[in-house]
User: Which sequence fits this backbone?
């Protein structure tokens, strides 16, 4: 007899003698198992669809089919209690057997590979290491960026120094020759003046020419000052006393008739010692700075002058080439004016650089200050913030103790 022979088969319930309690036990248990299997396989399929990147996903898929098949055999367990479809049931079982055998065999070679998969803890550690690496990398990038910025700043300063040197040489040469020519012009005009009758109508022309020559001489003096080629009369003097004596003159300079009020403050530093420089040129410098501050504070404000002791070390990054290490006195002139943009600051010391309308500025104020400080073997620095104000710092070498009495002139 083959399985295809049509012989009347008995339903499985017959074996249970149709005992209702037994039937109920089998039906309910098989139903629960089948539903649970279906639910598990559907869950696995949903998981696979949602996470297509799951490792060894195909074996999970195989499990899903296997569990689905198992569920179906339990459905048939219920069905065959009443209907003897044992052939179909057998085929379903055969299919389940096939899938389970494949899964069972396929599992083993997978195990070593699954064991090799990193555990969540290992992954967290790896993540941490990666984060540390990223942080280190970021630090390196930041350091590199800062170094680049510093280098650019140094290069910028070097260019600035070279530019000022070049302009100084050109200006100095021109002003020097020009000054000599002016002396010739002036000498001859004076000689001519001496030979003219007092009432001569020609005297008018000579006087005008002389006053023009005087103005030109002032201009060449300013250019020589910038080029550090003016004749200085350095002396050792008490800088605090000198500035204090200037206060009235500075107040007059700051107060324009009808202009907004500008207050002047002077904070003399304690025990700053005498400086060695040309006091008249220092006065001219402070006057120039006060005029600039006044121009920068059309709505009024405050001008503060302070002196402090400052020590300059050898090879400071922003030292001037001929600056000696040692004690200096810093005169800071601070205003609460409109400030300067970086571009203006870059060019501010150049002779004839001005942002003021024609007739208002000559562009020679800061170049005088620059030339004076540099010729005195000091350093000048600007700090400015547009809309906040400007600080000009003049560092003048402090007079060495025991200076020759010849230099230590009275003041
Ligand atoms: N205290 C300051 N506040 C703002 N800008 C200033 C100040 N001092 C100088 N400047 C700027 O620098 C430029 C050059 O100054 P300076 O050499 O004194 O020439 P001038 O005053 O004749 O313009 C000025 O035109 C101005 O733009
Ligand atoms: Mg000026």
Assistant:
């Amino acid at each position: 007899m083959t399985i295809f022979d049509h012989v009347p088969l008995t339903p499985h319930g017959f074996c249970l003698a149709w005992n209702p309690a037994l039937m109920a036990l089998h039906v309910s248990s098989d139903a629960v198992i089948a539903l649970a299997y279906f639910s598990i396989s559907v869950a696995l399929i949903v998981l696979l669809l949602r996470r297509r990147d799951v490792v060894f996903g195909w074996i999970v898929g195989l499990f899903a089919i296997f569990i689905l098949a198992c569920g179906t055999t339990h459905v048939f367990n219920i069905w065959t209690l009443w209907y003897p479809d044992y052939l179909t049931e057998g085929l379903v079982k055969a299919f389940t057997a096939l899938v389970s055998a494949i899964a069972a065999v396929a599992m083993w070679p997978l195990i070593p590979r699954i064991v090799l998969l990193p555990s969540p803890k290992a992954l967290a550690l790896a993540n941490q290491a990666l984060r540390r690496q990223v942080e280190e990398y970021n630090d390196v990038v930041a350091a590199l960026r800062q170094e680049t910025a510093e280098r650019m700043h140094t290069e910028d300063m070097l260019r600035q120094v070279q530019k000022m040197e070049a302009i100084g040489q050109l200006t100095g040469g021109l002003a020097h020759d020009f000054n000599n020519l002016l002396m010739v012009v002036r000498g001859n005009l004076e000689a001519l003046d001496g030979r003219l009758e007092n009432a001569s109508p020609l005297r008018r022309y000579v006087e005008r020419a002389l006053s023009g020559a005087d103005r030109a001489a002032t201009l060449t003096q300013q250019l020589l000052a910038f080029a550090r080629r003016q004749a200085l009369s350095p002396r050792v003097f008490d800088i605090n006393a000198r500035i204090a004596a200037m206060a009235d003159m500075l107040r007059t300079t700051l107060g324009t008739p009808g202009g907004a009020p500008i207050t002047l403050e002077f904070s003399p530093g304690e025990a700053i010692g005498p400086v060695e420089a040309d006091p008249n040129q220092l006065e001219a410098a402070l006057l120039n700075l006060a005029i600039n501050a006044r121009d920068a504070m059309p709505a009024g404000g405050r001008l503060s002058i302070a002196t402090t002791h400052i020590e300059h070390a050898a090879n400071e990054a922003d030292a001037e080439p001929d600056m000696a290490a040692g004690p200096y006195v810093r005169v800071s002139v601070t205003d609460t004016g409109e400030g300067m943009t970086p571009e203006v600051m870059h060019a501010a010391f150049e002779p004839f650089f001005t942002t003021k309308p024609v007739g208002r500025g000559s562009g020679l104020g800061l170049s005088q200050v620059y030339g004076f400080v540099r010729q005195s073997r000091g350093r000048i620095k600007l700090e400015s913030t547009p809309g906040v104000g400007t600080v000009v710092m003049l560092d003048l070498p402090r007079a060495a103790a025991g200076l020759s009495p010849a230099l230590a002139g009275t003041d």
